Amino acid sequence: MKTTEELAHRLIDFCNQLEFLKAYEALYAPEAESIDPFNKINPHLVGLDNLIENEKKVFATDRKN
């Protein structure tokens, strides 16, 4: 098991490389949950696949703006 500091450094490395989806795949559990009160369509997501799919939609929307 990795320490919190090791995990934080891995996350920083992914973010510095703009590899956000790879960070999800490497650092999140399959049963991960996301609770986002600002997301009116999907405020509560369950499962890593759903979190990744949501991020892909967010990235696609950001590129349009």
Whole-number total of structural domains:
1
Considering DSSP H and I runs of 4 or more, what fraction of the residues is helical? 55-70%
Q: Kindly report the oligomeric state of this protein.
A: single chain
Order of the strands making up the biggest sheet: 1-2
Distance between the termini: 40 Å
- Helix and strand content put the structural class at mainly alpha
User: Helix tally?
Assistant: 3
Number of strands: 2
Question: How large is the radius of gyration?
Answer: 13 Å
- The secondary-structure element order is HHEEH
Task: Note the beta-strand portion.
Answer: 5-15%
List low-confidence stretches.
none
Question: What report would you give on this structure?
Answer:
With 65 residues, the protein is mainly α. It has one domain (4-64). 58% of the residues lie in helices and 9% in strands. The protein is built from three helices and two strands; from the N terminus they run ααββα. The chain has a two-stranded antiparallel sheet with strand order 1-2. Helix 1 (4-16) packs antiparallel against helix 2 (20-27).
Task: Please supply descriptive tags for the structure shown above.
single chain, mainly alpha, 65 residues
Question: Which secondary structure elements does this structure contain, and how are they paired or packed?
Answer:
Elements: H1 4-16, H2 20-27, E1 33-35, E2 44-46, H3 48-64
Antiparallel strand pairs: 1-2
Helix pairs in contact: 1-2
